[in-house]
Batch of 2 targets.
Target 1
Amino acid sequence: MLHHLSFAVTDLARSAAFYDAALAPLGYVRVFADDTCVGYGYPGGGDKFAIKLRANAAIPDSGFHLAFAAPDRESVARFHEEALGHGGQDNGPAGLRPHYGNDYYAAFVLDPDGYHVEAVINN
C-alpha cells in the first residue's frame, strides 16, 4: 500500500548514524544521500524510508509509529541492540508479543528525535 515514508530530523548526521546501524540487521542500506536527506531501502533499489533535515521537526505523539519488516528474530534482536548503541532509547526489548498474535516477535525503540520505531517478524 505505501510507496515510501519520511521523517523530519533535527540532526541529519546523528539520525543517519542511528538508522545506518539499526536498519543494517534488517537488510536495509542507504540508497541515496545528500546534505539534507538520506534514503534507505534494499540494496540496488529505491528508497522506502527517508530522513530529511528540518530545523523545526515536529515529532508525532506515541499514537504514531513505524514498523520495519525483519527477515528473522535474530535480526529483530540485533536491530534493538544497534539502535540502543547508536542513540536510541529502549521502548520494549526483542520478544514475543502474544497480544498482537501468536508469532509476533518485535522490538521497540525511540530514535534520537523521539520517533517510535519497531522491527517485527510475524511468523
Target 2
Amino acid sequence: MKNPKRPTRNQKKALLSVGLNPANWLVFKKVDGELHLVHRENGTTRVIPKI
C-alpha cells in the first residue's frame, strides 16, 4: 500500500454521504469512481463510490 493521504473537500463530502467521519479515514487509492480508504487507528479498509 502506498502512503495514504488526507481526503480533499469533495472526498470528505463523499465520506459524509455514506456516514463516515472524514477525520478518521485516509485515502490510499482512487479508482474509476471508487475511493479506497484505510482507517487511521485500526487499519481496516473500505471501498466507497465517489460522488
